[in-house]
Input
Amino acid sequence: MLSADNLPRPPYGTYHDWYSSQDTAHLIRKTQDAENIFRKTGITFAVYGHADSSEKLIPFDIIPRIISGREWRKLAQGIEQRVLALNAFLDDIYHKQEIIKAGRIPRQLIENNVAFLPEMIGFKPPGASTPISSARTLCAPAKTSSTFWKTMPARPPASPTCWRTARR
Output
């Protein structure tokens, strides 16, 4: 929220004014309320294979991450590039397997991966031009100069919900 000189970054101007006027105890209670809701509704994860694989809350911060339109455009370009690359990789692995034939990735690395489904080789999902990657992406509300971060499940590039928003 603050820059190196301890002033609010431009996208945080209005929010910083509001936040500075809030009672700290109230914000702490609201954070605890949110954590309790997360626990009750099961918004948790576990890191399997670690000594402590108990369910943990998804990391949550009551302070939103606000970014400028310029920052968003840079992020959106990177997200779009990664989704296209992941989908191209998955499409190749489940179809022509050119990356394996070229020796760029050993066949065993793919075939021994627990997420690889050999029964899906050659399958194209109906209505999808590319496979759906299992990434998560950021989406911004339309027509804003600054935006709050929010995550949405990854969708194929044709998805009107997330993809078009990210291209703005």
User: Anything to note?
Assistant: The chain has two domains: 10-57, 66-167. The chain is about 40% helix and 10% strand. Strands lie at 44-45, 56-57, 66-68, 136-138, 146-148, 151-153.
